[in-house]
Write a structure and sequence with these properties.
Elements: E1 4-10, E2 13-20, E3 23-27, E4 29-32, H1 44-50, E5 54-58, H2 59-64, H3 68-73, H4 77-81, E6 86-90, H5 93-98, E7 103-105, E8 110-113, E9 120-123, H6 125-135, E10 139-141, H7 153-173, E11 180-185, H8 191-202, E12 208-211, H9 220-230, E13 240-242, H10 248-256, E14 261-264, H11 266-272, E15 275-278, E16 281-284, H12 304-308, H13 311-319, H14 324-349, H15 353-366
Parallel strand pairs: 4-14, 5-6, 6-10, 10-11, 11-12, 12-13, 13-14
Antiparallel strand pairs: 1-2, 2-3, 7-8, 8-9, 15-16
Helix pairs in contact: 6-7, 7-8, 8-9, 10-14, 11-14, 13-14, 14-15
Length: 381
């Protein structure tokens, strides 16, 4: 059986079902980041009620605590955490990038100093495959190196070659279990290196393919140039995952190019900072003009937060540093993203994706925006 079943196409955009051991996931799908096996400030109950189908957990963080062997003894991440839907684990490749002062890259793997207690760990491709098998997520990722932006051609070429060698070792280390293993296409911002990375990974026949090393500070036009360079090479019968990209306008551009899966910390991190997504733009609850605003965040939204609380009260909770603010704001942002992806799937099914995109952009870009919120790197935790 194919890992992904594509039901409808509208241009390059496609909708279908990602088949996992914990149910079929309707695609294109956005995965909220649940680094420790839980989305920050939420419970699994709310996630399921909202309609979240799949979350992302981080193997590096779970390896450090509580430990992948402990999770295995507890029956795997689903039994341990109580999450019954699909889950993907990142391998720790982004931590190689983000924790630069705490690591040393070698041919065999990466020497890490724990950001928690300073202990030292040597993470190899084989070890990170085993860690992810112990965790037991439905989809695992190969260990890779994400080159920073900007990087020289020579550095990026060496990084691609290392990522390819590590991917081969990951593939050889994988057991025969049901867990899917995705290869990660790197290549920085050099088209020929992106093509080389894609071709080398395609030859290894992974269960799916991710586009990594993007949203690391580069101009968005350059990011999409790199996706355009390799998207036609990716097999139609396998899932395509764009890692760490998650602004609504970026999700539209990714889906338009045939991407099936996305993850990002944007909706949850910004929620905790009081930045909320609506169909009319992004609002900053810290703004004083909401002090006595009795309306909901979004009058067209049916999430629990919008049905129950006013902007004035939510602002009060935020500026009072009330922890419940994290919970209520996150519910809204995750609901918005889930509904956003659902509407895109429906538009693809109706052959009206371009109409949806134009209508969304006109309304969203014409609304208010929280320009004071710094653009976050989506992969961070």
């Amino acid at each position: 059986m194919r890992a992904i079943e594509i039901n409808t196409r509208d241009g390059m955009a496609r909708s279908g079902r990602l088949v996992t051991g914990h149910g079929a996931v309707e695609t294109p799908v956005f995965m909220p980041v649940g680094t420790q096996g839980i989305v920050k400030a939420m419970t699994h109950r709310e996630l399921k009620e909202i309609g979240v189908q799949m979350i992302l957990a981080n193997a590096y963080h779970l390896y450090l605590r509580p430990g992948d062997e402990m999770i295995r003894r507890m029956g795997g991440i689903h039994a341990f955490s109580g999450w019954s839907e699909a889950m993907l684990t990142d391998s720790g490749g982004y931590q190689i990038f983000s924790l630069g002062v705490l690591r040393e890259i070698k041919e065999d793997g990466v020497l890490f100093q724990s950001h928690i207690d300073g202990s030292r760990h040597f993470l190899t491709p084989e070890k990170m495959v085993k860690v992810q098998e112990n965790i037991g997520a439905d989809v695992a990722m190969c260990l890779d190196e994400c080159a920073p932006y900007p990087s020289s051609y020579e550095y990026t070429e060496n990084s691609v070659d290392l990522t390819t060698r590590w991917a081969r070792r990951c593939k050889e280390a994988k057991s025969q279990g049901p867990q899917m293993l995705f290869g990660i296409i790197q290549g920085g911002f050099f088209e020929d290196l992106r093509l080389r990375s894609a071709e080398e990974l395609l030859a290894m026949d992974f269960d799916g393919y991710a586009v990594g090393g993007l949203s690391v500070g580069e101009p968005k036009t350059l990011m999409w140039d790199m996706v355009d360079a390799i998207i036609d090479l990716l097999p139609h019968e396998k899932p395509r995952y764009m890692m760490g990209v998650g602004m609504p306008e970026d999700l539209i551009e990714g889906v338009k190019r045939g991407i099936d899966m996305f993850d990002c910390i944007i909706p949850t991190r910004l929620a905790r900072n009081g930045s909320l997504f609506t169909w009319d733009g992004r609002m900053n609850l810290k703004n004083a003009r909401f002090t006595e605003d009795q309306g909901p965040i979004d009058a067209t939204c049916s999430c629990y937060t919008c049905r129950t609380y006013s902007r004035a009260y939510l602002r009060h909770l935020l500026v009072s540093h009330e922890l419940t603010s994290f919970y209520l704001n996150t519910i809204h942002n995750v609901f918005f993203y889930t509904e956003f992806m659902k509407r895109m799937r429906e538009a693809i099914g109706q052959g009206a994706f371009d109409v949806f995109c134009k209508a969304f952009k006109t309304r969203y870009e014409g609304g208010e925006h929280d320009d004071n919120v710094e653009r976050s790197v989506c992969n961070g935790h």
